Amino acid sequence: MPQFAANLSLMYTELPFLERFAAAARDGFRAVEYLFPYAHAPAQLAQQLRAHGLQQVLFNAPPGGTTRDAMATAWDAGARGTLCLAGQDAAFRAGLQQALEYASVLQCPRVHVMGGLLPAGQSHAGVQALVTERLHWAAQQAQDAGVALLIEPINGRDMPGYYLQRQDQAHALVQAVDSPRLQVQMDLYHCQIVEGDVAMKLRHYLPTGRVGHIQIAGVPDRHEPDSGELHYPYLFDVLDQLGYTGWVGCEYRPRAGTSQGLGWLQAYARMDAAEI
Ligand SMILES: O=C(O)C(=O)[C@@H](O)CO
Ligand SMILES: [Mg+2]
User: Fold this and answer.
1) Where is the active site (predicted)?
2) What is the pTM of this model?
3) Contact 24, 54 (CB under 8 A)
4) Could you say which of 12, 62, 82, 245 would form a disulfide bridge with 71 (CB–CB 3.0 to 4.6 Å)?
């Protein structure tokens, strides 16, 4: 049975961010993920986790910026990662170091490194050498910190120009870097929008051991995984058949109230036993 983590950036947005931890715990979640922690001191977040018996299982490295203030506001300013951006070495390295410091305090085993928006005139192949070299460096830092780094294909409808959109591109990078510390974050919502054939992709990629985290949402509206073109009960069975023991992040925008929309989860009452 899959083990679910609440995504506090998309869920519980009816509450201020620091109140979302308690709300997720009240609804039975034992694990949380979110996009960015940088607007809050790490100790403040660790205290929320402790107070509510939650594990932090994933967050993102900063999407841009070289100071914590800039990292905290970069997403709203339109930044979507620096991995593919030439001339952004300082931001890439400072961002990763900052993320690893948060991961240490939050005891979080995974950090998602966002790819960035391809500059006009650049191609995926054209930035391959730069990206591979940065991921080599980042995987070494992650190894020293005891953390896994994740890269995630994201659909170009939600994020036009995003550097990494397909599962095969992400797996090619992971193979090229060849570090057990670099894995793929497989978001089934993005996967369905970009390429489809989701169950077969799970069957193909999970046995490689290179998928470090899964996320879900209904398609096409990114609401609860109980309607739309993906039939999640079937996909959850596929995860079980494949022996997936990691977390499944609920990265969706509730249609009308987070707790009210959790009816789909009742069939999966045990949410606390995944291996982090
Ligand atoms: O959008 C997603 O999907 C994510 O997982 C985020 O971390 C990046 O926007
Ligand atoms: Mg995602």
Assistant:
1) 152, 251
2) 0.96
3) yes
4) 62
